[in-house]
Structure formats: C-alpha cells, structure tokens
Fold this protein.
Amino acid sequence: METQSERKVVLSAIQPTGTPTLGNYLGALKNWKEMAKDYDCFYAVADLHSITVRPEPAQLRRRTLEMYALLLAIGLDPEKNTVFVQSHVNAHAQLAWVLNCYTQFGEAARMTQFKDKSEKHPENVNVGLFAYPTLMAADILLYQAHYVPIGADQKQHLEITRDIAERFNGLYGETFRLPEPFIGKAGARVMSLQEPTKKMSKSDTNVKAFISVLDDKDTIVRKIKSAVTDSEARVYYAEGKDGVNNLMGIYACCTGKTFDEIEKDFAGKGYGDFKAAVAEAVVEELAPVKETFDRLIADKAYLNDCMAKGAEQAARVANKTLRKVMRKVGFYQL
Ligand code: ATP
Ligand code: LTN
C-alpha cells in the first residue's frame, strides 16, 4: 500500500462550455474516476480556458457550478481528491504568463485545435485562444503531475507541455516533472452519432449528434435509434463502417466487452437489436450520474463549501511550484 506522499499525481481539467457528452464521459471523465482510486488526483473546472469563446457571464457562472456538481456526480469524492475551479487558484494565470515567455510563436501556431477553432470562429481569433496550450501547461506543471487523463484530441497539447517543461528545466535546472498523457484505449474518440467521421462534441448544433450525460432514458434510446449506420445490417468492426464501429466502441466502454465478444453476441442479429442493447448499456451507465447530479445541484451551500476547500488544497500545492519558478526566473523576492 502506497502512502499519500508516494502516490503518483494526476491532473486533468474540463471546460464549463456545456453539459458533457458521452464522448467527454467515456473519453475522459470515466478515467478520472478510475484513477481516483490509485492516485493523488487534482481535477479542475477550466473556466479560464472557457472565456476564449466569450460566454455570457451568467451562463458561465451557472455552467461552472453545474460542471463542478457533475464532477462530484460521476463519483469523485471531494474528501479524497482535490476538485476545484481553475480561476480560484491564482497560480494558474501567473504561471501561464511565465510559460508564454518560454514558448515560441511558431510552436503554438502549429496546434491543430487553434487552427480548427480559428477556422470555426473567424470573428474571434483572440490571443487567449492562441495561448490556450500554455495555460493548459501551467495547469499540469503546477501540480508536478505524472499522468494527465485526456481524450485523443488533447494529445498535441500534452506534447507541447512536455516541450515547454523540458526547455525550462534545461535553462534553470530541474523544476517541472514531465507529464505523460493517459489516453484510454476504448472511448478515446467517441464520434458524432449523425456524422460518425467527426468527433462527438458538446457544442454541435445538431442535438441528435451527441448524447449528454444528463439526457433521460427516452432521449438516449431515441438518439441511438436514429444513429447513422450502414446498409449491411451486420455487427462487426471494419474500416468504413464508422457508425457501427462507433456504437461498438461505446458499447465496449459501457460493458467492458471486447469487440470479438460483441461480434459473437450479435452474430445473426440486425442493427435494431444491437442499438437497443447499446442504448440500454448507456442508460445504465448514465442513470446514476443524473440522479446524483439532480440532488447535488439543489445544494449550492454544499457545493460552495467543497469548492472553497478544493481551491485551498490546490493553491497549497500550486504555490509551491510557482514560488520555485519565480525564484529561478529572477523575480525580486521580498
Ligand atoms: P467543445 O465541444 O466545447 O469544443 P469538447 O467536447 O471537446 O468541447 P472539452 O472540455 O474540450 O470538450 O474536453 C474535455 C475532455 O473530453 C478532454 O479530455 C477531451 O479530450 C475529451 N473529449 C472531448 N470530446 C471527446 C470525444 N468525442 N471522445 C473522447 N473524448 C473526448
Ligand atoms: N484543454 C482541455 C481542457 C483542459 C485540460 C487542462 C486537460 C484545460 N486544462 C489540463 C488536461 C489538463 C480540453 O479538454 N479541451
């Protein structure tokens, strides 16, 4: 049994840009909960990141509280893990500034998320969007995280984090631990139910394309029933069967079955039976999350209390790293 101080550190964060989808859940949040058993975990609601798309203030406030409640609803224990809101810990923005000065313009400009998002929102390509990865690097490096559970789309941001950390360590001596991404095999990229070559995204304008973790049973059944498949009506994993592959991935993640087992279970059966089974597995997975969320969101005092404690614990660890960085860079110390 490892003691507290020997336990490896995990950090991850999610933006409060909407209710998480089944993609966020299977790709990231489910692993957060798994890792909480064995590691010293820091999980944040990345509200600083979310203002890159200029949300309406009241909406940002509401979504931050909801995302926080949701993190507890998936089963994270605020007594055992540090669950906090990014903007409550000043060190994130402070370290991000320092890291900006150790990141080259060219390397940030290569980030595919920056390129995608600037194309999607040409009217608001702000400097914050460009500097998104250095703030994310600060999130991770402040806690000296060993592992960062993320979906496959965030892998490039982990790589730039390591590059920045290595550069800083090279200049000033060992300061940051180099983090490893943790990307689950199944669920790393859950695809849209309507266009299965695109990733499932909570900001999709077509609500049939995603399942929200708070969708009720009927909605889940309806959305999976109308998921795009193909005309072959045989359940097996193969290139080009994007819709079926995606449903198999979802089913595998929810039930723990392998693709081989799924193919055997559904041999001779059509998509109707398969979709019904997938829907049932998803409902079973998400029902307890919704139930707990509904209870927690009604108790704002409890959530505020947990947030305050989380911020205090996080700040203790983060400030230690920040102080070290400030000293090494040469800021005048009082
Ligand atoms: P948006 O749709 O607003 O761009 P998003 O749905 O991509 O956001 P984020 O808050 O950026 O959500 O991501 C939270 C976590 O969920 C990240 O670790 C990300 O890698 C993971 N994730 C997002 N979409 C998927 C998906 N379709 N499949 C698997 N993991 C995903
Ligand atoms: N950029 C991430 C959210 C995020 C994050 C982090 C993930 C912000 N800071 C630190 C892991 C570690 C995204 O999912 N879009």
